[in-house]
């Protein structure tokens, strides 16, 4: 696409700066940090100002490598990203988190605009490093280590001048840049000064994420919270330090690094407590919240600064605790018989079992989503509390509200005179498993979001909410992103549920199929010919089908080994997602394709539901939404 007059003018200005220096009059309205970045782009990164390159999006496999390298921070940062997005989403912003190399590893935005966001690079996998994209919010933040806004024609590449991007760095506890938090808009008709509030929000949330990562990283060390004012010492300290058992600094947040660096120029990391403060380390116990915060003052060495100190000692833990931290709990380990891809997902989830992070499980029908959810529950500290499974597709739409939230006696026509507690309240203290979450009506999605945000539920007919303590695990075989783009699923609920995502492989894709057969047979013998037949089957019904086949064969085989003659007829069923096979991502989501599938099946709803891997109730709902009425029948 040829450059517009505006883009031509921008290219000319950048070239003048690169040729004549940073004092060109045309560039004077740009801040020094922007002009310096332009010079770096030309002279260090060797970028051509006349080029107009669209955003570079990494392929999925390479993106996954970047995500895995910072998986712990991604999990910690998720809540901060969701909180920030809830404040800016209505203003047209997207929220991005990149790694220290500028690769976007997490994203929250309105998926209705996904094509435009992807083209502009405001999307997962986008490379915003300065040596690739030129002057931009993320890349220039990485180069300078400071929070900033790159607004419209501040960008080096003329392709990006419609964008406004506001970023803040996130540092690890050793003072190294580990990530960048960014909020961006596709376009803006406001001056750069309009982004001041956005800049403060991004800096605040980057600071919160940085502190949360610090506290997690040093959860087994002494934590010192320091503040210039006693009133905020225990709730929002200015500075954080981590000390080992000898009183040496083993970690700090960015503010502490900037404010408490020793005057002699030595590094804060590795400094002794007694070299920083006029207090013996042996007396640190006096500051463990045993007296009011205004009486916990400590003088920095040299007598030039007074701070207020709150000390948190490391928790006592058994000697064997460190060895057991990475061990996969037995309920989760039992889900795999050696498939490497599944094992990696199980190991990741094992580190999340006792966190409040939402879990979204996707996979084909029968791939074991509910078994996985039950294993997470059984492996967690909630195992002694209820596991409540709700199939959102199986409950009639007019009853799902009262089933989930409960109701007071006589609160609506037909309501039980005794009232009903509701499934969410039944799961209090335990795990709520929401299967087929994509079939939840839009109106109830808003109420569910409130439950997840406020941790309280309001029964139908009630005026006071009831607090609940639940871990929510959701599952679906439908593509929620597609439903979000179609306006049938709330994006804020989608992001809330997808704190961590587990995609279960289809049985035909698993390398441990033979071992799974052996495990399910529990010592029962099977001939090589029968096993080979099972391994050759595409298993469109996944684990559910495999269990049924093995139960059938074991019944027929009696006391002897299972042989070919004992197996039911295993016809080559079309695999989901292949040409000619209807499934929820195609026919069920496309009204015209859905009508065609029903006509071809002579309006046999049960047959079409089986073909698509859906329940009949789900299929009826899809038909109702599409306005499809079977011949000679009223819906």
Walk me through the structure:
The structure is a single chain. By secondary structure, the protein is of the alpha+beta class. 37% of the residues lie in helices and 13% in strands. The protein contains 25 helices and 17 strands. The chain has a 5-stranded antiparallel beta sheet with strand order 2-1-5-4-3, sandwiched between helices. α4 packs antiparallel against α8 (196-217). The longest helix is centred in the N-terminal third of the chain and has 22 residues, at 196-217. It is globular. The model is unreliable at 319-325 and 572-587 (pLDDT under 50).
Largest β sheet strand count, sense and barrel closure: 5 strands, antiparallel
Mean pLDDT metric:
84
Could you list the spans in which at least 5 consecutive residues all have pLDDT below 50? 319-325, 572-587
Number of strands: 17
Strand order of the largest sheet: 2-1-5-4-3
Structural class: alpha+beta
Number of H/I helices: 25
User: How would you sum up the global shape?
Assistant: globular
Percent of sequence in beta strands: 5-15%
Rg (C-alpha, Å): 29 Å
Q: Please report the distance between the alpha carbons of the first and last residues.
A: 50 Å
Helix content: 25-40%
